[in-house]
Structures are given as C-alpha cells and as structure tokens.
Amino acid sequence: MNSQALRSSLPLLYSTPDAWAMTAMSDTIVLLNDHAHLERKAAANAMELLTRWPETDPPEHWTTAMTAIARDETEHLAAVTRLLYRRGGRMTRHHRNSYAHDLRKLVRLGGPGELIDRLLVSALIEARSCERFEILSRMCGDAPLARLYRGLWHSEHGHYRVFLDLARQVRPASEVDSRWQALLQAEEKIISAQLPGPRMHSGMP
Ligand SMILES: [Fe+2]
Ligand SMILES: [Fe+2]
C-alpha cells in the first residue's frame, strides 16, 4: 500500500502534515523514551481491560484478544528500549502524555458506556500512533528507526480494528458507532491542541 492508501485506511479526522516529523525527530532519544512509555502503557491497558468484561467471566475470545495485544505491546516495548539503550539513552521512571490523558477524560465512568469508551479511546490512540509511524517511516531519515516504524504499523493497525470490533460486541452497533463519531471529533480537537516536541503524539510548531 502506498502512503495515501495507508492513511485512508484510518478513520482519523485530523491529518498530520509530513513536516510534523521534523519536530518529532528533533531529539530521537527523547522520542524513543516517549515511545517506550506508550508501549508500556498500551500493554498495561490491555491487561487492565482483560478484567473489564461486563459480565462475571469473560469469554475466551476476549482473553485471547487482550493477552495477544499485551504480548504485542511488550514485544514493541522491548524493541524500542533496545534501540533507546543502544543509542545511549535510558528509560525514565516518569512519563506524561497529555494527548492520552485528555482522551481518557472523555470516558464516561461507572455506567454501561464506560467499557465502550475505554475500548474506543484505545482504538483512537492505536489509530493515531499508526498515522505517526507511517509519517516517520518515510520522513525520519534514520534507517533503523524507519524499519521499526514500518514494522509497527501493521501491528497497531490490527489493534485499532480489534478494539473497535470488541466495542461493537459489547453494546449495540448503532450506539457504538454514534459514540465513535463523537470521539473521533473530540480526538481531532485534542491532537490539534498538543504542544510540539519530540513525542509520538505531539502537535505542530
Ligand atoms: Fe505497540
Ligand atoms: Fe497497539
């Protein structure tokens, strides 16, 4: 698939310009550390969702999906930290991601909407990460990093689809689809409002 086809396979309303790669690549150690934490949080999120099935015991396909995602994210984390340490960086103890933080504030807590919101926010973060990996794989000018980002694209695209499909199994499709449209619009505003910098979910200068 070419770049346009890869992008149009994503549902996102805001399309990041290629020039974003300049700000993201302004410090590759900081970018790799940010990325490592995103993978760590994605693995932890899948493990957290494992116990969130709305009835008492989750069906096998739910545990299979969540454990597969957690395993993928842990492998991604290992690949990213390998590059980080090889280049003389270290993984920091603390990490802030205001993009994911702002998205998570949209989750309606305590009712039947909570689980679909958690799944849809997870799908949005996967889709946005996919978009950013596609841009970096073409624009970063750093062969090992380009290879990493190209490799991750397919995995994260699969995760985005899995989270969306699971949300449609938990609640009626019409309810999920209208919530999905609302969250896509909210995501457009949130990603556009991010500050620039060497982070995977940063904004434009
Ligand atoms: Fe990942
Ligand atoms: Fe993922």
- Look at the helices and sheets and give the structural class: mainly alpha
- In whole angstroms, the N-to-C terminal distance is 29 Å
- Uncertain segments of ≥5 residues (pLDDT<50)? none
Bound molecule types: fe (ii) ion
- Whole-angstrom Rg: 17 Å
Percent range for helical residues? 55-70%
Largest sheet: none
**Total beta strand runs:** 0
Mean pLDDT rating: 95
Instruction: Give the count of helical stretches.
Output: 8
The dominant shape is: globular
Q: What fraction strand?
A: under 5%
Q: What is the oligomer described by this structure?
A: single chain
Order of helices and strands: HHHHHHHH
Give the helix/strand layout.
Elements: H1 3-8, H2 20-24, H3 28-50, H4 60-86, H5 98-104, H6 113-139, H7 143-170, H8 173-192
Helix pairs in contact: 3-4, 4-7, 6-7, 6-8
The structure holds fe (ii) ion (2 copies).
Structural notes for this entry:
- The protein has 205 residues and is mostly helical.
- 70% of the residues lie in helices and 0% in strands.
- Helix 6 (113-139) crosses helix 8 (173-192).
Could you list some keywords that capture this structure?
205 residues, 8 helices, binds fe (ii) ion, 0% strand, 70% helix, mainly alpha
In short:
The protein is mainly alpha-helical. The protein has eight helices and no strands.
